[in-house]
User: Which sequence fits this backbone?
């Protein structure tokens, strides 16, 4: 008859196991393992209580407040001869004696979360189980070591902002392994309404990355629940900080956790996406942040953006085309869909439209978007429109009638993400769209049950209208922008040209007028070209700019002979000054370093309330370190030394923020290799 082993105590071998499971950056003070991969613990037995082939004991693994075998949140298993990585199993992997090595493996589809494991009648251990993208049996398996290093293990990254003509790299500290962050991520799962309604069912759902990423999409915003961030796109930022303030996710997640799950104020799309990326990577789901330039917001699912302008070419109401919009892609299989829809799935934590009654979006296969497969779960019509919607521009005349305007606005431009292993921009537009005008693109539109592109009508072959700008437009300078009209006909043309500019937020909300010109009689000989300059002066635009540094240019041209009207629109981004970072001292772990940081004031006026902040994963204990300085005159350098102590070796990103009354949240960074 089998006798039960008498265990005196256990050694969880956290240092070895966590390193083996690539979770050691979370610390080695507790056991954190990935599913479908064995881990080992040491069993110290009462002398003579183990007899090979005779002794046995039962193991019971449980997660969640209502563990049940029916929900898959409770598993009972005994000792077997060998580990079976396809299910919960345990085996002795050392010679017989009073100290044994026990190997344990979870099922590759076990729910993630906190576990207690009962060993025999009296011993109990605790551990955390995460998704395992290194395990072929896991739904998040990725067969690409460099991709895994980037999309799971990398704690910092680049977010692309600016505009499609000038994508600007903004550094971000994801910090998913910083102290306490994994606990915050698990708490976010426990605060979601599905868990509060039915904890057993919700914990069971945590075996499935599709379910988890959909929960995260809802929980990063606070619109329906005790989510992490409150969004704000207009007005001031009273009661919180500007979304531009943040340089990483760590401070946001810690604030939410310490403030009794009250939403952190405030976020905009790149902040929502970055926090979603941090949580996904912390839980073991490969994840990357994506920027779509000229992103359409289609609120009625007709895949058409209708925008109205007045007779001066000025928009009436907000632009439904965001200068850029950020979301995340997570890597997983889609057993609920066609077999070839595995891989990158888009989901969006920015609250825009409701999905199944909740502000969330996705996950939807990127391949389904490309193929116009709008029946695919979840929210494919909305994401399809963001990269493909047609734009119809109408003039609202004074008498109330509307006139269609020829316009060349294209949505879904330069879809971008950070390259694997470098800070370069990777263009992934081809993953979302077939080439413009190709047969495949037309086929995808047909499949999306959408009429032929409404704006594929021939442009006025006679007149060509475009906006030209200089390459180097810096904040603080005066410069010219040009409307260029070309007459490609055999006849002389007489036109009216209105050229306007206004400040703009990245999500299309328009501000004050930065300069306007109305020319009633523009005459063009056959084949002639006319360049009309518009001067943009800092003393006019300086106080109107938002933190996004964007100015929208629009030219409306009326051909007096044909009565045809044409619109050209272009958004320009004014470049902030460069932040220079010098590292003083030899970068070694646990050795104090200084960063000498310099920024030259480019404005023709002094900067007050100047402050530099730095942060970086394993560099500044997750949170920012700030250094204030007084006023900085025009053309003068703002310069500080900030001290920090790296805690881990390897390549790290030091993220820098400069803030002042007139120059807000300028970002910079320096990659630093920390030696052992």
Assistant:
């Amino acid at each position: 008859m089998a006798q039960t082993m008498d265990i005196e105590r256990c050694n969880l071998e956290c240092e070895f196991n966590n390193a083996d499971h690539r979770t050691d950056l979370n610390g080695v003070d507790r056991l954190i393992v990935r599913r479908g991969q064995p881990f080992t613990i040491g069993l110290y037995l009462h002398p003579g209580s183990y007899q090979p082939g005779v002794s046995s004991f039962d193991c019971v693994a449980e997660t969640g407040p209502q563990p049940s075998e029916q929900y898959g949140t409770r598993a009972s298993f005994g000792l077997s001869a060998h580990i079976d990585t396809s299910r919960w199993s345990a085996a002795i992997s050392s010679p017989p004696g009073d100290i044994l090595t026990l190997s344990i493996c979870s099922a590759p589809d076990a729910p993630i979360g906190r576990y207690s494991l009962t060993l025999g009648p009296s011993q109990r251990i605790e551990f955390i189980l995460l998704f395992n993208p290194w395990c072929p049996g896991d739904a998040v398996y990725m067969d690409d070591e460099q991709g895994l290093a980037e999309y799971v293990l990398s704690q910092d990254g680049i977010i692309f902002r600016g505009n499609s003509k000038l994508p600007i790299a903004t550094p971000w500290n994801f910090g998913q392994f910083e102290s306490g962050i994994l606990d915050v991520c698990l708490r976010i799962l426990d605060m979601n309404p599905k868990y509060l309604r039915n904890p057993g069912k919700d914990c069971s759902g945590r075996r499935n990355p599709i379910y988890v990423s959909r929960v995260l999409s809802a929980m990063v915003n606070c619109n329906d629940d005790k989510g992490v961030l409150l969004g704000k796109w207009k007005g001031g930022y009273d009661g919180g900080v500007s979304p531009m303030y943040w340089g990483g996710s760590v401070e946001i997640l810690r604030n939410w956790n310490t403030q009794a799950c009250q939403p952190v104020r405030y976020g905009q799309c790149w902040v929502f996406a970055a926090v979603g990326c941090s949580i996904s990577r912390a839980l073991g789901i490969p994840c990357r942040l994506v920027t779509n330039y000229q992103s359409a917001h289609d609120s009625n699912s007709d895949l058409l953006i209708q925008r109205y302008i007045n007779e001066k070419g000025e928009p009436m109401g907000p632009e439904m085309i965001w200068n850029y919009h950020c979301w995340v892609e997570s890597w997983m299989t889609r057993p609920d869909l066609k077999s070839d829809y595995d891989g990158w799935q888009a989901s969006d934590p920015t609250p825009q439209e409701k999905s199944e009654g909740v502000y969330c979006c996705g996950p939807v296969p990127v391949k389904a978007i490309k193929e116009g497969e709008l029946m695919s779960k979840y929210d494919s019509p909305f994401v399809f429109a963001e990269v493909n919607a047609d734009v119809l521009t109408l003039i609202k005349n004074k008498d109330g009638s509307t006139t269609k305007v020829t316009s060349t606005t294209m949505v879904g431009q330069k879809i971008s993400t950070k390259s694997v292993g470098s800070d370069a921009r990777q263009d992934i537009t081809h993953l979302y769209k077939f080439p413009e005008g190709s047969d495949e693109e037309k086929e995808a539109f047909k499949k999306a049950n959408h009429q032929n592109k409404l704006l594929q009508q021939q442009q006025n072959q006679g007149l060509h209208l475009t906006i030209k700008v200089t390459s180097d437009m810096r904040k603080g300078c005066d410069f010219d922008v040009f409307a260029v009209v070309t007459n490609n006909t055999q006849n002389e043309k007489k036109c009216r040209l209105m050229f306007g500019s206004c400040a703009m937020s990245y999500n299309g909300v328009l501000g004050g007028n930065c300069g306007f010109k109305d020319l009633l009689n523009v005459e063009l000989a056959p084949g002639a070209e006319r360049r009309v300059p518009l001067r943009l002066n800092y003393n006019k635009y300086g106080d109107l700019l938002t933190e996004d540094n964007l100015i929208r240019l629009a030219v409306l041209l009326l051909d007096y002979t044909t009565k045809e009207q044409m619109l050209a629109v272009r958004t320009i981004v004014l470049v902030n000054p460069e932040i220079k970072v010098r590292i003083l001292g030899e970068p070694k772990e646990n050795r104090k370093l200084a960063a000498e940081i310099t920024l030259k004031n480019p404005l023709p006026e002094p900067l007050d309330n100047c402050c530099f902040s730095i942060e970086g994963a394993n560099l500044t204990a997750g949170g920012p370190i700030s250094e204030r300085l007084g006023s900085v005159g025009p053309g003068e350098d703002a310069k500080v030394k900030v001290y920090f102590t790296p805690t881990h070796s390897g390549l790290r990103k030091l993220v820098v923020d400069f803030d002042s009354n007139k120059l807000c949240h300028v970002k910079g960074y320096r990659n630093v290799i920390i030696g052992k």
Notes: Residues 269-283 form the longest helix (15 residues).
